Structure formats: C-alpha cells, structure tokens
Amino acid sequence: QVQLVESGGGLVQPGGSLRLSCAASGSTFSIYAVAWYRQAPGKQRDVVARISEGGSSTDYADSVKGRFTISRDNAKNTVYLQMNSLKPEDTAVYYCNNIYRSAPWGQGTQVTVSS
Known about the structure:
Elements: E1 4-7, E2 10-12, E3 18-24, E4 34-39, E5 46-51, E6 58-60, E7 68-73, E8 78-83, E9 92-98, E10 109-113
Parallel strand pairs: 2-10
Antiparallel strand pairs: 1-3, 3-8, 4-5, 4-9, 5-6, 7-8, 9-10
C-alpha cells in the first residue's frame, strides 16, 4: 500500500518561499494524477494544485494561481510544491494524495506564514 510522507514546511514571513516534497512508496504512484491539499484549523481539506500522471498538465486553486507550482518526478516517486509570495492565509497543514484521495493520508507538513 502506498505511504505518503510530506516534508518541507516551516515558519516563513509573508512574501517568502517554501518548497514542499511528498515522497510516495509503492510502484503505483506514477499511474495516478496527484494533488496537494491543505487544511487550516476549523476548515475542510481543499485542493491547492493538481498534476497529471505524466506531469504535462497542471491546475491550481484561484487563491494560489501564479504563486504556487506543482511538479513531479516519477522516477523518484516524489511530488513537489514550490510556494512563492506566501501570504498569512496560506497557513495550513499541507498534504498530498492522488486526486481520488484514496491513499492513506500522511502526517502532512505545517506551513505557517507570519511576521
């Protein structure tokens, strides 16, 4: 069964950048489109960005469009989220999963944007 491990979060000032990574175990990783999700306290877990199986197609939530970039390296079973121009409203726990949310969730990585 796939295991997902997110990393790269931290505390950053507004306007700063972070690069998140999601490492997946298991050989089935590359056959799925994958997404990054985020969940702020008291809110539901929402999609932030999605990427197709081969990485040629991406789409983003309006709130992050132009600031975040999703990418993947199927040889390394890893998905990335480059986050630039971070805002306090980006503060959340960030998770990755396939677009069906069918893999067991990892522990997530906390991103805090604050001065």
